Amino acid sequence: MFRQLISFTALALALGTAAHAQTAAPAAAYPGAKPVRLIVPFPPGGGTDILARLVATKLTEVNKWTVVPDNKAGAGGTIGITEATKAAPTGYDIVMGQKDNLVIGPWLYKNLPWDPTKDLVAVAHVAYTPVVIATSSNSKFKTLADVVAAARATPGKITYGSPGNGTSIHLAGDLFEKAAGVKLVHIPYKGSNPALMDALAGNVDLLVSSLPSAMGQIKAGKLRPLAVTSIKRSSSLPDVPTVAESGFKDFDVSTWYGVLAPAGTPASVVATLNTEINKLLAQTDVKAAIHAQGAEPEAMTAAQFSTLLKTDYAKWKGIVEASGAKIE
């Protein structure tokens, strides 16, 4: 009798366990119905913002996710990155970073509470772009040679605007000054759009900018591109010479953009985001949209993007130190 009771009890437990297994809801796949916040560390209208909104829009449209851009501008993009590093590593808070705030900012700002190679995980590279040196369409400068001649004739008189002190774009201007042997006056702004507006108004002589930030006004004929800083001409501006072609051999400066997440984000979430973003980058309409902004789409594995991040982080330490740029 006792043995029968044990048998009946064991059977009941087994049946109960089986029934629970059949009725228990499976864990929802990431991201499910929960919205994903995509932190944008710069103001609306700049290159980072444009690409972030394209990624957010397409992930929402194609995958039926809810991806919401959230602009957290300031301190050369480091405020937005700081917020991303402090977020829970769940995949529901990610960030669109770029070379400026990830690999240059840490060498400029004292006591940043994060290391990009330790406190973030590389998720998906999105695009890269050369920097463009441009001027208002009403400017007297028609070529980069005109700028160099004027700068040599009047040292310290020619001004250029950039999206911020110590950004890769500012440092591209600094490297150009060194290559040309001229002295320009750097005017830093809080983001690409304010610098662009002052260049159009003629308040600064030159604009040094990412192509995505400047492309709209270039296409509108209000901004005259003088040169791009990549070693090859941009496919978006094939008629615009490179700085190297303009007489400064081997000059090559470009920037890149990519999505990152807080360190500790599950590998499965990173893999999902990488796969879906890379799928978008293969789509004809997304490629066209990125090219329209003057950028070049480039998919990478998460590991490849991580290597790029670490390599550039080490490389730009020396460039920043040589520039003398500092931000207290």
Automatic annotation (TrEMBL):
Pfam families assigned to the protein according to its UniProt record, in alphabetical order: TctC
Presence of keyword Signal: yes
Signal peptide positions (record): 1-21
Keyword Lyase among record annotations: no
Highest taxon of source: Bacteria
Alphabetized UniProt keyword annotations: Signal
Gene3D superfamilies: Bordetella uptake gene, domain 1, Periplasmic binding protein-like II
SUPFAM superfamilies with a match to the protein in the record: Periplasmic binding protein-like II
InterPro entries registered for this protein in UniProt: BUG (IPR005064), Bug_dom1 (IPR042100)
PANTHER family (alphabetical): BLR1237 PROTEIN, TRICARBOXYLATE-BINDING PROTEIN
Homology family: Belongs to the UPF0065 (bug) family.
Protein name: Tripartite tricarboxylate transporter substrate binding protein
